[in-house]
Design brief:
Strand content: under 5%
Number of strands: 0
Largest sheet: none
Distance between the termini: 32 Å
Number of helices: 12
Shape: globular
């Protein structure tokens, strides 16, 4: 059984305290930001169409899969069960309610990070995830970033915590949640590959099979052998890759919708930015 250390308690307390001012700010912004912010002009109307059952309606300017809009539709159904039918045009899918989904997503990020800290003893604070500049700005908006991150982090959490302690079952749920994340951001396939690697790495750590001397070449050999040994266990991740490749070929590229303004190209500055961010 994993014990809870004082640092975990302090981390949780600071996380909860940080949510309060963000919620106050979010609540204040309801009366200020009444218009669409950048790509919300595509996301919110699309979600509203899904909320009233118009699943055939699609804006070709949208470049990501429809996961976010299905989430909005599910939120609408849950709200209907709790509060009853709404007489509004888009029922409970008004601008502010849809934006609140991302605020809720931030709370889920906190929970997932706390679980990782408790079970894997990772040396990272929950606030470093929750207040990441790449995420925190979107808690007030209706964008794909938050729930895309929630689902890929949930997949990673299952990959390293391995709660069922049954290889294929853990891999199945990690890959399934990862597949859901692809319905929000198709580029999450890269992080899903990382999660598969983390899954194998954790299985080696669980059996204490790594070379204690830290010889990198020996450990690479150990990892490769485990990878080949667990090929069947990794089938759910491989299936995700197959689905991604199939849909990419069928779609004629990674980008959905407006391909002309979202072409794949090598961007050296972004590579530098990415590695700098990971290093920090």
């Amino acid at each position: 059984m994993v014990s809870i250390e004082a640092s975990d308690i302090v981390d949780a307390i600071f996380s909860v305290l940080t949510v309060v001012p963000i919620y106050i700010y979010f609540d204040d912004m309801k009366g200020v930001i009444k218009d669409y912010v950048v790509d919300e002009i595509f996301h919110i109307p699309q979600a509203q169409e899904y909320c009233i059952g118009n699943f055939d309606q699609w804006n070709d300017k949208i470049t990501t899969p429809p996961g976010l809009y299905y989430l909005g539709a599910i939120y609408n159904k849950l709200s209907t069960l709790v509060y009853g039918e709404s007489d509004q045009q888009y029922q409970y899918c008004n601008m502010q309610n849809l934006r609140s989904l991302n605020f809720i997503g931030g709370l889920v990020l906190i929970l997932l990070t706390l679980i990782l800290r408790k079970n894997c003893r990772i040396n990272i604070s929950t606030l470093s995830i929750y207040l990441s500049p790449l995420l925190s700005v979107y808690y007030l908006l209706f964008y794909t970033d938050i729930w895309s991150s929630v689902l890929i982090l949930a997949s990673y959490t299952i990959s390293v915590v391995q709660p069922f302690n049954i290889g294929f079952v853990d891999a199945f749920f990690a890959a399934f949640v990862g597949l859901l994340s692809l319905s929000f951001r198709q580029t999450n396939i890269v992080w899903l590959g990382f999660n598969a690697v983390a899954f194998i790495d954790q299985r080696i750590k669980n059996t204490k099979s790594y070379d204690g001397s830290g010889n990198i070449f020996t450990n690479i050999t150990i990892f490769t052998k485990q990878l080949l040994q667990d090929f069947v266990v990794l089938l759910p991740f491989i299936l995700d890759l197959g689905i991604f490749v199939f849909l990419t070929i069928k779609n004629g590229g990674i980008t959905y919708g407006d391909k002309t303004n979202h072409e794949v190209a090598f961007h050296l500055v972004q590579v530098f930015y990415c590695f700098s961010f990971i290093t920090v």
